[in-house]
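To: structure subgroup
Subject: Chain for Friday's discussion

All,

I'm putting the inputs and outputs inline so they're searchable in the archive.
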Amino acid sequence: MEETARIAPEHGLPGHLVDFVAALRQHGVAVGPGETVDAAEVLSALDLIHREHVKEGLAAALLRRSGQRQAFDTLFELYFPAALGAGASDVEVPRVDDTDDGPVDIDSLREVLADLLRDGDTDALAELARAVVDALGRSGASGIGIRGAGGQPSWSAYQALRMLSPETLLARIMDDLKAGHDESTPFADEVLRREIRDRIAAFRKMITDEVRRRTAEIRGRDTVAKTAVPKQVEQVEFLSAYAEQLAQLRRTVHPLARRLASRLAVRRKHAKRGTLDMRRTLRRSMSTGGVPMRPAYRTRRPGRPELVVLCDVSGSVAGFSHFTLLLVQALREQFSKVRVFAFVERADEVTHLFAPGAELAGVMQRVLREADLVAFDGHSDYGGSFGSFAEFYGEAITSKTSLLVLGDARTNYRDPNLAVLRRLVGTARHAHWLNPEPRRQWGSGDSAALRYADVLPMHECRTAGQLADVVEALLPV
């Protein structure tokens, strides 16, 4: 059964589309006037009765980059909801004693859910999710209503899912489906188990989406969107990212590197000519009566400098260092030579772990396990690390070297060793520091960021997007 794309009655279709586009922009999805015009043409060509057609048509018109679909889907559910209020549903929630307003019969409801999950009836599951939220999302088994601020009903996906516990139906559904088959193999059972898990996960999402829709009707779409719309991968902050987000970040390394390399190629194309060569220009002008009709330019010699990366791999900073090192490894062809040094309390070279073709899965664990980084208690010691680097690997820094320091500059109140860092920076051709902490936190507590910033340029790199901008600006042309 097709669902209608609902539009708030106080807005016309063009105004509603403009509001939707504005929400996309607010959450990091770049949508220009051209894409908005395309989206308007999509809405004029499609029948709003077919909601999925509208959704896919708008996605094709508005999205231009990978990684934006999750934010789009969440906002689409808020701005083009499948229903208003409780909506209409052909699925009834069983009640105790078959009364219309009695407590929900949880056992009977779980049986209905198990049958629909077994059959894989997506439309019926969506209707059941709507009915379940209306029955359980705001009332417990005892039927006691839950009210939020101002007497408005409060909706809870956690409460509804906790009472239903759909995950516990897996074994029962497996038995029902296997009963209709004479033969059963471990491989077939595993395929079936994963399919049922996917159906259960899809039903959980239906419940969550329905609660979000009902909450948005009460609190407003913008309020709900602030917490409901996930950040795009390139906007996730390194220091607050959880494991799944860090895994997504790692998957964006090579696409990001390709974009940076293509931008660099454009920059090189536009800057292929060097400065004006006055002597050659004057000699050419002799054939045109002294008029410089054909200016001559010096031949550019694009530099591919050596790169030395010195990175803190302790604690939560390791996620930032890992992503940055993967990006550098993907861009290593832009440099004539790359050497990587990790540090916690002292520095050690780990270049071999990031060599071309090296297996990068679990590379940070290998760095911590194989490199000699700890001298005393395992807490970051920037001063000691700079000192050991200068003592044992000082020859790595030459007049051809670009030095890149990665870390939050938190020294645990130890000596920052500014003199050694100043000497290294003075020897290098270029030197930059990438800091994953917000600029407003530099210098707070044990942070020596502001003191280090007096020695070399320090750049805020909290997200992959910021890191890409900084790396692009630092790449040689």
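Points worth raising on Friday:
The first strand starts at residue 273 and ends at 276.
Confidence is low (pLDDT under 50) at residues 139-150.

D.
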